[in-house]
Amino acid sequence: MSGLPPRQRLEHLVRSLSKFLPSQLDGLLENARFKDGATALQRLADPGHVKNALERMSPEEAGWLADLLTERWSQIANVELDPEVAIVAPEELWIGAEPVRLMLSLAAVGLDEGFEALWEGAVLPGPPSSKATLLAKPPEGKAPEVARVRAQVRASVKGERGVFIAQVQIALRRPVVVVSDDRRRLLAQDQSGRPAVGCRLEIGSEVHLTGPGGLVELEVPAPSGVSLKLEGIPAGRISGGKP
Fold first, then answer.
1. How far apart are CA 227 and CA 242, in angstroms?
2. Could you list the pLDDT tens digit for every one of the 243 residues in the chain?
3. How far apart are CA 169 and CA 163, in angstroms?
4. Torsional sign, CA 87, 88, 90, 95
5. Sequence-separated contacts (24+) of 35-38 with Cβ below 8 Å
6. Cα distances (angstroms) measured from residue 209 to each of 109, 187, 235
7. What is the pTM of this model?
8. Pairing of strands 200-203, 206-209
9. Contact criterion met (CB below 8 Å) for 96 and 233
10. Which of 127, 149, 159, 184 has its Cβ near the most Cβ atoms within 10 Å?
C-alpha cells in the first residue's frame, strides 16, 4: 500500500490509471460497447475534474476510493504507477499562543532508495534530508492562514537521476469558542469563523465531540469559570453568572 496521504494517493492513482490503462486494454476502449468507460477515463484525465472531486472528499473517502480503484484495476491488468513523492503532513493544525514544531517526512512511490530533499518555506533550516521540522506560527487577526512547505527531492528511478517537487499547505487554526447566554450551546470555530467539526471540545473535565457547524449542546448549563480547550488548545473560560 502507498504511503502517500489519502487525497494525493487517489490523485496519483487516477493520473496513472488514465495514462496506462488504455494501452493495457489494447484497443478495447474503441469498441462501442465500452463507450461509457472510455468517456469516464477521459474525465479522469482532466486535472480540473479530479481536483474538484477531491476537494469534496474527506481523507477517509479518498483512501477508501483509492483502495477500491486499485482492486478493480488489478482485476483486469497490472497496476502501473508513475513515480511520485509527497510531504506527509496534517491538513490542518490547531495552534495556541506559541509556535508549534512538527516533524514532516516524505512518502514516495517508484523511487530508488536513498533520496533526499532541499526544504523551503515554513521549516527550520537544515541540510538535505528526507525529513524536516515545520515551524508553525500562531495566526494573527481573523484571516485564514496556512503554512506552506516545499521539498525539492533529488532521487533516482531505476537508476536514472531526476528531481521531483513536493509541496503542501497546512491550514493554521486558532481556536475560538462562542458560548450562548444560557451556557448550553457552545460553537467551536477558528479565527476566521470556519466551524470546527468533529473536534474534541473540553469543557472543564468533560470532553465532547463537536457536531455539524461546530456545535455542542449541553443538557445542563456549563459551570461558569471552567476552562475550555479545543483539540487540546486553550480557548478561554466560561464566563457569566447563573443562566
1. 17
2. 468 899 899 989 888 888 887 777 765 555 555 555 555 666 665 677 677 878 888 889 999 989 998 998 888 888 888 899 999 999 999 999 999 999 999 999 988 887 889 999 999 999 999 999 999 999 999 999 999 999 999 888 888 888 999 999 999 999 999 999 999 999 999 999 999 999 999 999 999 999 999 999 999 999 999 999 999 999 999 986 544
3. 20
4. negative
5. none
6. 36, 11, 15
7. 0.80
8. antiparallel
9. yes
10. 149
Q: Cell numbers of 73, please?
A: 484495476
Let me know how long the chain is: 243
